[in-house]
Amino acid sequence: MAIKIYKPTSPARRKTSVLLFRGLDKVRPLKSLIKAQKGQAGRNNQGKITVRHQGGGVKRYLRLVDFRGDKFDIPGKVKTIEYDPNRNVLISLVVYVDGEKRYLLNPIGLNRGETVISSKINFQFKVGNRFPLKMIPPGTMVHNVELEPEKGGKLARAAGAGVILMIVEGAYAQLKMPSGEVRLVPKDCLATIGQLSNPDFRNIRWGKAGRMRHLGKRPTVRGKAMNPVDHPHGGGEGNSPIGLKGPKNVYGKKALGVKTRRAHRLSDKLILSRRKR
Fold first, then answer.
1. What is the pLDDT of residue 110?
2. CA atoms of 88 and 84, how far apart (whole Å)
3. Each residue's pLDDT tens digit, 202-218
4. Residues 66, 177 within the same domain
5. What is the CATH number of the domain that holds 234?
6. Which residue segment(s) compose the domain that 232 sits in?
7. Cα 87 to chain center, whole Å?
């Protein structure tokens, strides 16, 4: 999709750009595939903030997207391609031959009127079809990949995302992630062929704080701008350094560049090479 850049008619407009959702179906979401969601504003059941910088935002319904893709050997026709306010990738409403309707993540190249299918037996190389990794040719870009069989897709679900299937050997398939990490996944896990739509999402310039508030993101204050009682970086005169060996977060733990992955996880042996720095 194209990106529109506004003329600098005001300070807020000067750095603003938006996506042009041309060609999408402007329809109300299917009533049976939505549910209301209540904003928690980052608070727990006691009303205390446990996740900072959340709150507000535009009220919206949650679309129930099918990440499992477990309706096998029944073809479905793409009826509409829609905007989903809860995610950065487009979704498509698929109507199956037996009358059931489901929302699926829409990949690049899948248009309304086309047919998609999931199967564990009959392989048909077509964008939008879903098969086990052992049936897909090496070198194919896939998305919505399962980490465990029958657990639903977990990998490559964002706008423009895609995982490259490198090789299937033994009981595992080698996948190259968008980050450059190479990892092993059981070859019986399902994956959908193609790269996800809306890759231009990362090129948006939001321009002003108000657009972030519409997304439910509250302001973030620099630690250096706080007092020492509020943040490890706080205090000092003028543009003073943090005065520490390394940066810390508000809770006093190391931040920026520190490994966050828990040590000695069972899945460590499935990672062949780490992501690129």
1. 93
2. 7
3. 999 999 999 999 999 99
4. yes
5. 4.10.950.10
6. 222-277
7. 7
